[in-house]
User: Fold this.
Amino acid sequence: MSTREPSYRTLRLLCANAVGMAGFLLAFAIAREFAVALVAALILAAIGYVASSAVVAYASA
Assistant:
């Protein structure tokens, strides 16, 4: 069995993707404007990527 430390980059990107998609759908439902929803999704995806460190900490424990 490998003793390598696993990389959680994929997990972090999946968290950011999920938050970004949810943010896009919510912003589009509220604003009904594509550009506003896209900006909101990008901001929320960045926040989701940073906040996913908690998920990585849980997964690596």
